[in-house]
Specification:
CATH architecture of the largest domain in chain A: 3-Layer(aba) Sandwich
CATH superfamily of the largest domain in chain A: MoaB/Mog-like domain
Number of domains of chain A: 3
Strand order of the largest sheet of chain A: 2-1-3-8-7-6
Mean pLDDT of chain A: 92
Largest interface: A-B, 93 and 98 residues
Distance between the termini of chain A: 53 Å
Oligomer: homodimer
Radius of gyration of chain A: 25 Å
Shape of chain A: globular
Number of helices of chain A: 16
Chain lengths: ~425, ~425
């Protein structure tokens, strides 16, 4: 029989509308993939009594309850107390293991631990601490009536890895499910969805879905089987099929970032990269260096936000600027070639564009971007008009630049391979 | 007395995680502005019985219930039936006015009306139709026990104008709530919480809470009052108190970003900024240029990830590097001064550090960062050891750098003011 779950979110910032709850959608998707049916989401403010009632009501209806939020160190964080109340007014006791982990965390960051942080080591009697490697507050696993209740911190960068590592493995049962995730860049979600339409409407044993986040489209495959080996073989067969259909659109898998993949290709080719950024203001460099070990292949570059720096450091001439404008293919090309020359890099990526909301014209609208790539075989340039707001234009621009480098590196490897 | 509301969202696409619910946050924000306290959000799938129970439970606790979704023409849309059930198993009756509006809509778009669209004119006996000028499904207003229940279509482009035109005007009266949010940087949530502990002790008339996101701590204040003016005065008094206690830790309010505040100060002083980034790889520039209009005060700078660029572009000497190492105060200072000289900026921020996870030593651990700021009155430098993973170290580092610039700009303004 399918297990049922209720997801509870806690926080005044949710009930007053300051924050949109994304945790519930994430957990719902993951629970569905794990074969668990989510019957309800409930959101309450930082209110001990209401939260305790919500936990108790959820435990009456579902066998799994996941609560996010309310584990911070301040007085408005009431999830520990509410869980203890729902467990039958159990006392909170200090968990020595958690206290030691929290203390060590503060030693490591060389800051005094405040008394309020000590409250984060409190657990309802008989509950289990879930180690948090991404923040101070441990999670909690407990039993309320017939339901297993998991309490996780609210910040998504703590909640999601804790769910994957500590909660998801406990929710299986009844056969095996294997997962594959493939990441794509270069087409929209609907275009990719159309190429996979028959796979996405197949059956319950193999589920294929797409999600879009920050310009990256991920194809998620979940395949059931009698055991792990069978489920894995089934998931792999579908993944292979998806790879055949989407080809170069797929840049990586299982959480790999575009920057990490490009970094791997640069390292393999023993080549160095530099950047020259205008409208992205440092975003390309920031994405490239988000990968540990980027110093093996990334030299750095120039943020030439003001035109004077495009001239002084990159060799863009006054004449180019006045004739074509800063947002133009000749300027992008000169920026890339100038960055390669300045740094001695094998590859140089340049971007110049109009991120908006102001600064657009009929001829050069907001979203217009030129990307240039100088490399061993010469310089190429591309023109785009990206939709969306300033953040979106800048992100699309940076990711497109990095993706062009990926395709160029693949082509080079193919030539020499 | 403040009115209480429960918001219900209905749809399998929400409970299976395919769609993130944004309606609840919108409605919460608007209700808050109308002086209504939202005590809970509930999301259920397309399930008649569960939805009817959710409506009935909400009507027990709140005087206002807003339900979105489930008004479509297909069989899985069950909001009409669920409302009728919650009203005491009332029958559904066809509303002639709504049927005529729906028929006219199809004539207007020159398409035949299907029988299933006719079901959209059904209402629980005694309920009132809310005209929908943005789609086919009328909304519904009804009484369930002592609560007023409003049912609106799920698509935000229909829901939001219908709420504004048909629901909001009916919700006034009965006290008001005013809100203030103050954003802090420079101390952890627990340290800030301790300075506000007495304010954060639960009091129903004035609530003070903290949330942490990406290194920024936000203090949220909600104050009730007999009317808007009284609530606003009360919220302002608490905000003033929080400002007195936290002083310079507070950089902004009501959603302002640190970069936007610093940008405003630079613009006010008519001064220019440049950056020299090592471990952050462009993140400082990216944050500064996330603000539209940053070209008024941001020139750009150098991403000197490789040591050779620190030398070539910023004047960091071989001797400095070999004697102190790239992650050192003398190098940070030289980078800042070099960037100011290279670009002609009034202010230059430099960062150099060990973002990890590799590259640390006993003497220079992962998280060690030097920040330097060259300005009109000379160059200052700071040493930090930041906790957390690579992303967190880089973000803290970039925000701390920008915050030092903020404090320096404030000090300059104070001197000359």
């Amino acid at each position: 029989m399918t297990q049922k779950a209720v997801i509870i979110s806690c926080g005044d910032e949710l009930t007053n509308g300051a924050t949109i709850d994304t945790n519930s959608a994430f957990l719902s998707r993951r629970l569905r993939e794990l074969g668990v049916a989510v019957i309800r989401h409930v959101t309450v403010g930082d209110d001990l009594e209401r939260l305790a009632l919500a936990i108790a009501a959820a435990a009456d209806e579902a066998s799994i309850v996941i609560l996010t939020g309310g584990l911070g160190p301040t007085l408005d964080d009431v999830s520990r107390q509410a869980l203890a109340a729902a467990m039958g007014n159990l006392p909170l006791v200090e968990d020595a293991h958690s206290l030691e982990r929290i203390s060590r965390f503060f030693v490591k960051i060389n800051r005094p631990m405040t008394p309020s942080n000590r409250t984060q080591a409190l657990l309802p009697a008989g509950a289990e601490a879930l180690d948090n490697d991404w923040g101070t507050a441990p999670g909690i696993a407990a039993q309320v009536k017939n339901a297993r209740v998991f309490v996780l911190p609210g910040p998504p960068h703590e909640m999601t890895p804790m769910f994957e590592r500590l909660v998801a493995p406990r929710l299986g049962g009844g056969g095996a499910i294997a997962y594959r995730t493939l990441h794509c860049f270069g087409q929209g979600e609907s275009a990719i969805g159309e190429q996979l339409a028959d796979l996405m409407h197949r059956d319950q044993a193999i589920r294929v879905g797409t999600t879009a986040s920050g310009g990256i489209i991920s194809v998620r495959i979940a395949a059931g089987g009698a055991d792990d080996a069978q489920a894995a073989a089934s998931a792999q067969a579908v993944a292979d099929d998806v790879r055949r259909r989407l080809g170069d659109l797929i840049f990586g898998q299982e959480g790999q970032s575009l920057s990490a993949v490009v970094g791997g290709l640069l390292r393999q080719a023993d080549q160095r990269l530099a950047v020259a950024e205008s409208c992205t203001g440092g975003l390309v460099g920031q994405l490239i260096t988000a990968v540990a070990g980027a110093s093996d292949y990334f030299l750095g570059g120039v943020i030439s936000y003001a035109d004077q720096l495009k001239g002084k450091l990159l060799g863009v001439t006054e004449e180019m600027l006045s004739r074509h404008g800063a947002v133009s293919q000749p300027v992008a090309t000169a920026m890339a070639e100038g960055a390669a020359k300045l740094t001695g890099a094998d590859w140089a990526l340049a971007v110049t564009g109009i991120a908006g909301p102001g600064g657009g014209s009929e001829e050069k609208p907001v979203g217009l971007v030129y990307i240039a790539l100088a490399g061993p075989a010469g310089t190429s340039a591309w023109r785009y008009v990206f939709p969306g707001d300033r953040d979106m234009v800048r992100l699309r621009c940076a990711l497109s630049a990095i993706n062009h480098l990926r395709l160029a590196l693949l082509a080079e490897a193919h030539k020499s391979g």
